[in-house]
Amino acid sequence: MNNQNNQADLLKELRIDRKSGPPPSRRGPWIAAAVVVALLLAALAAWALFGRDRGIEVRTAQVVATGGGTASASVLDASGYVVARRMATVSAKITGRVREVLIEEGMAVKEGQVMATLDPIDADAQRSLSAAQLAAARTQVGNVQAQLKEAEANARRLESLVQQQLVSRAQYEQAVAERDSLRAQLASTQRNVEVAGDQLRIADIGVDNTVVRAPFDGVVVAKAAQPGEIVSPLSAGGGFTRTGIGTVVDMDSLEIEVDVGEAYIGRVKPKMPVEATLNAYPDWKIPAEVIAIVPTADRGKATVKVRVALKEKDPRIVPDMGVNVSFLEAEPPAGEQAPREARVAADAIVQRDGDDVAFVIDGGDPATVERRTVEPGRAIGDDRQVLSGLSAGETVVLAPPAELEDGSRVRVVQ
């Protein structure tokens, strides 16, 4: 009996009690702590991303050095063309047929060098006629001189006879009249000789006009006529008459003509240094200088012409080449050193409390700004010269917003 009761008790102990929960776990507190820490980190990240002051968004520019160096700052950039101040289309003074052309394009010529000759038949004939007329006039002078000599001797002889009353006074007076007439005739024939001599000289000029010569030293850039063509100093129309033999350019007279807008002509001054760059040779910087500002404006283009002299002579520079020019700041006088200055974008300088100030960005993280009082100079294009307050290489804020103050945090944007 007792054994059966013991077995029943043992069976009861082996039954599973489904009403009671599982035994308590020891990991519960650690899991709760991990959840709390994760929530705190998430909150910190959210604050760092959204709650912290990220600074004022600004745009920046760098301060550039000017003066005291080898290169000057450009005040204005423009484009123009190479032109020759001394260029001539050479033609004959008379109309005639070309006999010989002695030039070719690219040929260097000297002043007075023969470029071409015309058919001289007409000119030679005119000269021969003038020479014959001169010889005839001289012969007539000799004849009149001989007659005058005889008349003068006859008048002197009759004068002594009249005093002796051997001949009548009427006969003597007739001899005197004949003498005076021959004297007048001699003066006329001598004048005719002078006229004939002048005509011969004119005929010589006509012969010389059949030779076309270079008016100055230069280079032939165009050949306009061929042997057998008719040339004339005046255009005869129809396309059959040439008006020139060729075109000669004095390469030493080359300069640059630039059209500068009326709004910027105030930046250009005579004797201002210029740096020229030919479109054909973009790596070649040619020193130049402003010659003059032509005192007239183009109404249609609203521009003013500026003449620029090239300080270097080179065969590569030819007329009508395109060129870009940079008008530079004036160089200091000899023996003086240019002051060390800087320039910066004009909108980086603003008025605060009556002072001209700029905001310089430091290199920290986060970036902050430092307010600087500056002394601005003249305008240089879209930039402004800074005489003091900023140094080359510093970074400044462009168009500083009104809320920007000394020490403000900033965030640089492109």
TrEMBL record:
Residues forming coiled coils: 134-199
Chief subcellular location: other
Residues annotated as domain Multidrug resistance protein MdtA-like C-terminal permuted SH3: 350-397
CusB-like beta-barrel domain segment(s): 256-328
InterPro entries: Beta-barrel_RND_2, MdtA-like_BSH, MdtA-like_C, RND_pump_MFP
Domain of life: Bacteria
Record localization: Cell envelope
One Pfam match: Beta-barrel_RND_2
UniProt keywords, alphabetically: Coiled coil, Membrane, Transmembrane, Transmembrane helix, Transport
Membrane-spanning parts: 30-50
All copies of domain Multidrug resistance protein MdtA-like barrel-sandwich hybrid, residue ranges: 86-232
Family: Belongs to the membrane fusion protein (MFP) (TC 8.A.1) family.
Annotated NCBIfam families: RND_mfp
PANTHER family registered for this protein in UniProt: HLYD FAMILY SECRETION PROTEIN (PTHR30469:SF38), MULTIDRUG RESISTANCE PROTEIN MDTA (PTHR30469)
Protein name, entry field: Efflux RND transporter periplasmic adaptor subunit
Organism name: Luteimonas salinilitoris
